[in-house]
Amino acid sequence: MPLPDLVELRTRLDRRITDPIIKGLSQSGISPDTLTLAGLALNIGAACFIATGHFLRGGLLVPVAGLCDLLDGALARFIKHTSKFGALFDSLADRVSEAALFFGLLVWYTLGGNAMGVMLAFAALIGSFLVSYVRARAEGLGLECKVGLFTRPERVIVLTIGLVVNQVTIALWVVVVFAYITVVQRVVYLRQQTRK
């Protein structure tokens, strides 16, 4: 299946999850920014659990935070309360959330004297940021760049599974390998787009 079709499939799946919840949230008075902040706070809480070796607790908080992240933009669109600042704030919260999780792992591996774990967590953090940066920079230049095998949802899912089943090192290897593959995919795609 071509990569653009994967993006469309993921969007449809997101809407199946969010649409029923959004209707209730729109009547509750909760703002999209509140959901963004809730997701950020939950990820920071998860990072604290992870840094102290409570991987299961942290792993269970991450998908709840992810649900907030999934819902904030959908709610903003549903109540017609979208704004450029809201989009910026959401993207910033996403980056801080992801950085917090990897920082939690960096702390855990550093305190445990696990040099390989430290390097993996750091490489995963950089790779994740590069995936997002390439898209953001492309969009700043007026290019669309939604392609990529391993975007943020996939990274979060893999990390969550690794935390819950206590196989964090394997999860980090998967994130590192596929994040850098995604960076290359996006650069190649953009190179082809700019040659047209």
General description of the model:
With 196 residues, this protein is mainly alpha-helical. The protein has a single domain, classed as Up-down Bundle (Four Helix Bundle (Hemerythrin (Met), subunit A)), CATH 1.20.120.1760. It has 7 helices and no strands. It has helices at 3-28, 32-51, 55-78, 84-111, 115-140, 152-164, 168-195. Helix 1 (3-28) packs across helix 3 (55-78), helix 2 packs antiparallel against helix 3 and helix 6 runs antiparallel to helix 7. It is globular. The model has no long low-confidence stretch (mean pLDDT 88).
- Our measurement of the CA-to-CA distance between the termini, rounded to an integer number of angstroms, reads 23 Å
Tell me what portion of residues adopts beta-strand conformation.
Answer: under 5%
How big is the Rg?
Answer: 17 Å
How many helical elements? 7
Number of strands: 0
Order of helices and strands: HHHHHHH
CATH topology grouping: Four Helix Bundle (Hemerythrin (Met), subunit A)
Mean pLDDT: 88
CATH architecture: Up-down Bundle
Overall morphology: globular
- Any low-confidence stretches, pLDDT <50, length ≥5? none
What is the level 1 CATH name? Mainly Alpha
Briefly summarize what is shown:
The chain has 196 residues and is mainly alpha-helical. It contains 7 helices and no strands.
Question: Topology, pairings included?
Answer:
Elements: H1 3-28, H2 32-51, H3 55-78, H4 84-111, H5 115-140, H6 152-164, H7 168-195
